[in-house]
Amino acid sequence: MLFRRRKPLGFWGKTRIALWPSRSFSRSARYFIKRVLRLTATPHAIAAGVAAGVFTSCTPLLGFHFVISFALAYVIGGNLVAAALGTAYGNPIFFPFIWAITYKTGNFILGEEGVREGHQLNLHALLRHLDMSQIWDPVLKPMLIGAIPLGLASALFFYVLTYWSVKTFQERRRERLANRAKTRLTNLSGKYPA
């Protein structure tokens, strides 16, 4: 392997780097953005894939984000790799905020905001027996309904941002490669006159 560590990291070292990158979060974010920009597909396909991943990340269906984002990206003509990268929008740092917003929005849409205002949910008691019928009405239903407007708004924002970024990146790259090719042709024609 070309870029392997001389001394492999152990379990705790890998866990530490997963929670707090050794270089910085900004370097990790820049790498992530460059990874999306360098995908080989049309700007629409990449942007649609990212939007599908972002939309899916707003749902409370944790174990199914990849599967749902792949299916959604396939339906709207998005790139599957971009969809997988788009699911990073939902991460352990943002999940509490996303879930709180979707829960409040879902209760507002369902008209149950005032009904559940003074009522506190005991998630431990609901999850103790893993009975989905007890979790569905008070928790999952409002979160799924609230995820739709939040997911659509986030997906639209990330679609526009990604489409513009990828289109600009690909145009600049094309220009750079064309200029390089012209320079090579000029150098070759100077070496070998006809």
UniProtKB/TrEMBL annotation:
Q: Which Pfam families match?
A: DUF2062 (PF09835)
Q: Which InterPro entries match?
A: DUF2062
Q: Per UniProt, which keywords does this protein have?
A: Membrane, Transmembrane, Transmembrane helix
Write out the transmembrane intervals. Answer: 36-56, 143-166
Q: Ranges for the DUF2062 domain?
A: 27-174
| Superkingdom as given in the UniProt entry | Bacteria
User: PANTHER family from the xrefs?
Assistant: SLL0298 PROTEIN (PTHR40547)
The molecule here is called DUF2062 domain-containing protein
UniProt source species: Pseudohoeflea suaedae
